Amino acid sequence: MSLFRRKKKYSTDTMDNGAKLITAANPKNPVSEQFRTIRTNIHFMSVDKPLRRIAFTSSSISEGKSTVTANMAITWAQDGKKVLLIDADLRRSTLHRTFELPNNRGLTTILTSGLSKIDLNEVIPNSGIKNLDVLTAGPIPPNPSELLNSKRMLNFLKAVEPMYDLVVIDVPPLLEVTDTQVLSDKLDGIVLVVRAGVTQKAGVTRAVEMLKISKARLLGYVLNDADSEDAAYGYGYGYGYGDEE
Ligand SMILES: Nc1ncnc2c1ncn2[C@@H]1O[C@H](COP(=O)(O)OP(=O)(O)OP(=O)(O)O)[C@@H](O)[C@H]1O
Ligand SMILES: [Mg+2]
């Protein structure tokens, strides 16, 4: 047993350079088509109850959440939905890099100052993509879990509801911090991103258990890196609480 745990080599690529927006750059690419298939599958899950607030999470770090979340938000916007994409991964935020937006204000500004003191139109810019507005994370606070679990967060989500058809949220991994679990009861559904060849089966099982405990509605999972020998990015979609990954 070693005294010091070796530091895991997580990618900071999307934190430094932003996620790759294939759906915006090349809507005809097969990968963009895969995102549209995921959109359709998620739509099938919402027949009984309309989904207005969706988050994408994963069991651990660097499994492709931010890439999937941003591309899914674009895919919904391309379908004519008015979409708000929120960066609620306050510890490893990426959206300001992905959409090249300032991050001196963002979600944390709204949560620390309160809605009454904020002009939402000023804090939430358009992404440069039609129908898609983006709320960046804002300055990193010392207490992300409390902020996401606050009444202000719920009030904010309620306040933007009349303005958007869909709110899509990038959240931290379930097994790393409690942020996503505490946020999940404010959402209509959660999709688990699973990275082929990387995500541990035990991690998925534990993540699903945690979602069940917090009474979150698991809509299904996105298999990231599917068929990655053929293309740099590949995506599949499955659903249910089983282990059919
Ligand atoms: N399908 C894929 N094929 C190849 N590389 C990918 C794929 N999906 C994501 N990546 C790369 O993996 C890294 C992590 O992706 P991303 O930041 O989207 O994951 P994340 O789960 O949001 O990570 P974090 O836990 O840091 O928030 C990035 O460098 C990204 O470019
Ligand atoms: Mg991320």
From TrEMBL:
CDD domains: BY-kinase (cd05387). It comes from the Bacteria. InterPro entries: AAA_dom, Bact_polysacc_biosynth/exp, P-loop_NTPase, Wzc-like_C. One of its GO terms (molecular function) is ATP binding. It catalyses: L-tyrosyl-[protein] + ATP = O-phospho-L-tyrosyl-[protein] + ADP + H(+). It is an enzyme of class 2 (transferase). The keyword Cytoplasm does not apply. Residues 63-212 form the AAA domain. GO terms for biological process: capsule polysaccharide biosynthetic process. Keywords: ATP-binding, Capsule biogenesis/degradation, Exopolysaccharide synthesis, Kinase, Nucleotide-binding, Transferase, Tyrosine-protein kinase. Signal peptide: none annotated. GO terms for cellular component: plasma membrane. Pathway: Capsule biogenesis; capsule polysaccharide biosynthesis. Its EC number is 2.7.10.2. NCBIfam families: eps_fam (TIGR01007). Involved in the regulation of capsular polysaccharide biosynthesis. Autophosphorylation of CpsD attenuates its activity and reduces the level of encapsulation. May be part of a complex that directs the coordinated polymerization and export to the cell surface of the capsular polysaccharide. Belongs to the CpsD/CapB family. This is Tyrosine-protein kinase CpsD. It comes from Ligilactobacillus saerimneri 30a. The lineage of its organism: Bacteria, Bacillati, Bacillota, Bacilli, Lactobacillales.
